[in-house]
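FAQ

Q: What does a record look like?
A: Structure on top, sequence underneath. For example:
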């Protein structure tokens, strides 16, 4: 039987699974059949003692049984939980496949929780998997059920929820800013993040336990230099190495599985989400809901490299943090290539501001897409940004009057060498485009100094609203599920002209 830690997952091979849980005191078991937003469709997706059946999910004899092939086809997952009328102690959750216990998860609540989501049985690419969650709710079922969409009038296990009950911030399993192909990439990222968190947690625990046991071994001056103390120290190191070894082995297993999943995904993703060597770049362009920025990795956690992707249209401008636009030219080229590839059904026009000439090498291959001459003089910036901002204002007026029409083209604005040479009015125009640019189909990419203290003015607000992409090694990014640090290796447009033409779809 596998002993899971929070965030770890494992594949399910049987068609029928059973969820049970044990703790001190009486608890009630239940299940929620949820969509990709982790919310039920209606009260019939809530299975418990008083509502014991939904398609493929039944409650009987103090257990929840799931016949996986019978779960409704549009369901994303089944959340398995326990609730109690008291503060929960340690809960041992078990999942059995065809009657044989195969996974166990021990949860020790520390914040007065009276309800816990123990497991998530979820569907990934036609295969069912199990993830250990441990998400707690200190207001019990009255908080858990409404957070997942169970109507207030249909919560028989608990009193009516308070009006402020919401989905808990950072609840495990919630895909952020994702859909379709992008969703798959973010789910892989989440699995990698949780596996990394389990490894880090196990290493930290092993180190603290070793330190404590070594201290205990030498705490008595009369025995610290005896064979017994030597044996205690040796045993402490053995226990430490054993725990770290198991954690490393589990993480390698997870990483190997995710590596295979990444390779499989790369072979079917649209070009904007795929690596440069993927087959999508040599076939007919397909629309994408996201773009790939690069790969996330952590040297101390193995060789796994996870694609880092964001949605399109861009919900936040991209800011390439660099002191040299020239040094980041191929990074900018990769971003533009993927933005072009994401929306192949619309003509693309690019506005390029390049005051220092650092992007001169990019201007030539982009020439067929340029909306006008490359801006190399700061005096020409206000007119170009003003025209775009004015178009966005008109689009907003049309939208407010109910006469809006979808943008007929995709505009990409690359503002390089920022903020040097830009006037205050230019910053205001960029801020306006950040808010209203989607109305004219605009994607905004800023290239320049991002680590500067801009004070409290419009420049600071613009910086805080952007998604910053570091170009210097050693700059950490933190995943949204566990808060662990990753490094980002940004994709770069190949230097060969023929490849640039291919990737820019010219």
């Amino acid at each position: 039987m596998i002993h899971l830690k929070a965030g770890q997952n494992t594949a399910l091979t049987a068609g029928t699974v059973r969820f049970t849980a044990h703790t001190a005191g009486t608890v009630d078991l239940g299940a929620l059949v949820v969509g990709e937003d982790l919310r039920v469709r209606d009260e019939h997706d809530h299975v418990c003692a008083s509502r014991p059946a939904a398609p493929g999910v039944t409650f009987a004899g103090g257990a929840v049984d799931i016949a996986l092939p019978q779960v409704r086809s549009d369901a994303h997952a089944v959340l398995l939980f326990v609730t109690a009328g008291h503060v929960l102690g340690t809960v041992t959750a078990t999942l059995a496949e065809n009657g044989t216990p195969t996974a166990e998860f021990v949860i020790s609540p520390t914040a007065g929780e009276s309800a816990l989501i123990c497991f998530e049985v979820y569907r990934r690419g036609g295969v069912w998997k199990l993830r250990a969650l441990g998400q707690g709710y200190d207001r019990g079922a009255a908080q858990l059920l409404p957070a997942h969409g169970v109507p207030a009038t249909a919560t028989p296990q608990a009193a009516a929820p308070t009006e402020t009950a919401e989905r808990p911030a950072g609840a495990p399993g919630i895909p952020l800013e994702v859909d379709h192909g992008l969703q798959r990439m973010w789910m892989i990222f989440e699995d990698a993040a949780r596996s990394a968190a389990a490894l880090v947690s196990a290493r930290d625990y092993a180190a603290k336990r070793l330190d404590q046991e070594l201290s205990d071994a030498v705490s008595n001056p009369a025995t610290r230099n005896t064979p017994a103390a030597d044996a205690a120290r040796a045993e402490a190191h053995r226990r430490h190495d054993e725990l770290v070894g198991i954690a490393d082995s589990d993480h390698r297993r997870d990483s190997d599985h995710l590596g295979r999943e990444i390779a499989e995904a790369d072979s079917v993703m649209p070009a904007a989400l795929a690596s440069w060597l993927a087959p999508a770049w040599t076939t007919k362009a397909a629309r994408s809901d996201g773009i790939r920025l690069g790969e996330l990795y952590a040297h101390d956690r193995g060789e796994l490299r996870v694609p880092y992707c964001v949605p399109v249209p861009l919900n936040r401008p991209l800011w390439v943090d660099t002191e040299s636009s020239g040094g980041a030219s191929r990074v900018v080229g990769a971003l533009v290539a993927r933005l072009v590839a994401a929306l192949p059904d619309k003509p693309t026009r690019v506005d390029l501001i390049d005051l220092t000439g650092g992007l001169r090498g990019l201007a030539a291959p982009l020439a067929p897409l340029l909306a006008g001459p490359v801006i190399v003089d700061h005096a020409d910036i206000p007119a170009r940004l003003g025209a775009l901002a004015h178009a966005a204002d008109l689009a907003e007026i049309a939208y407010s009057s109910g006469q809006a029409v979808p943008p007929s083209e995709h505009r990409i604005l690359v503002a390089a060498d920022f903020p040097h040479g830009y006037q205050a009015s230019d910053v205001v125009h960029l801020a306006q485009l950040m808010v209203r640019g989607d109305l004219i189909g605009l994607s905004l990419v800023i290239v320049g100094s991002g680590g500067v203290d801009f004070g409290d003015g419009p420049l600071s607000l613009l910086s805080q609203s952007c998604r910053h992409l570091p170009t210097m090694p050693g700059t950490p990014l933190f995943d949204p599920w566990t808060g662990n640090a990753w490094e980002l290796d940004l994709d770069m447009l190949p230097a060969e002209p023929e490849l640039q033409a291919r990737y820019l779809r010219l």
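Q: Is there anything notable about this one?
A: The longest strand covers residues 127-137.
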